[in-house]
Amino acid sequence: MKMAKQITIRPSDIVVALQLAINPRSHFQSIAESASISAGECHNAVRRLRLASIILADERRPSTDALHEFLVHGAAYAFPPIVGAVLPGMPTAHSSPAFAAILESSDAYVWPDAEGSARGQSLLPLYPGATDLPRRNQPLYELLTITDALRVGTTRIRKVAAELLHTRLAETNH
C-alpha cells in the first residue's frame, strides 16, 4: 500500500499568495509574468495554498486573515532566513522602501544582486525572481520585503512589519 505524500507550502507559494492578494482576479499566466514564476508552478501553488486554507476553497483569493497569520507566526519557521556576507543588492526586510518613513535601523539587509542599489547583510530571497521585483512589480516587492522583515527582524521590527502587512492586505481586500 502506497502512502500519500505530505503536501508542504513552498517559498514560491507565498509569492503567488501575495500576488493574488494584490490582484485576486489574476489568471495563472498573468501571475506567472508579474512574479517571474511558471504558470504551472502558479497552478500548483494555488492547489497547495487551498489545502492549507490560505486561499479560499471556492475562489482564487487569499484569506487575508489566514495569510497574515501564517506570515506573522510561521514564515520565520517555515522559511528560516539564510543570512550571509555584506554584499551589494536590492534592499529588503526593514531596509526596504516599505519601511522608509516608519523605521530607522543601522543593520541593512539586501537580496544579493550585482546591480543592486544598496549594501547590506545578504539575505537569500524566498525565490530566485525576487531581485527583479523592484523594477517589475513594486506592490509584490513591498509585500515580500515586509515578509522578510517578519523573518529576520527584532521583536520591535516584527511588530511594525505585522502591522504594516495587516494594513497592506486590508488595502488589497476590497
Helix percent reads 40-55%
What is the H/E order?
HHHHEEEHHH
Class of secondary structure makeup: mainly alpha
Indicate the mean pLDDT: 93
| Strand composition percent | 5-15%
Largest sheet: 3 strands, mixed
Number of extended strands: 3
Radius of gyration: 16 Å
Tally the structural domains.
Answer: 2
> CA-to-CA gap between the ends?
47 Å
Detail the poorly predicted runs: none
Indicate the overall shape.
Answer: globular
Number of helices: 7
Could you write a compact summary of the structure shown?
It is built from 7 helices and 3 strands. With 174 residues, it is mainly alpha-helical. The chain folds into 2 domains: 11-78; 83-172, no CATH class.
Give the key terms.
174 residues, 2 domains, 3-stranded mixed beta sheet, 7 helices, 49% helix, globular
Please explain how this structure is put together.
The chain has 174 residues and is mainly alpha-helical. It folds into 2 domains: 11-78; 83-172, no CATH class. Helix content is 49%, strand content 11%. The chain has 7 helices and 3 strands. Strands 1, 2 and 3 form a 3-stranded mixed β-sheet that branches. It is globular and about 50 Å long. The mean pLDDT is 93.
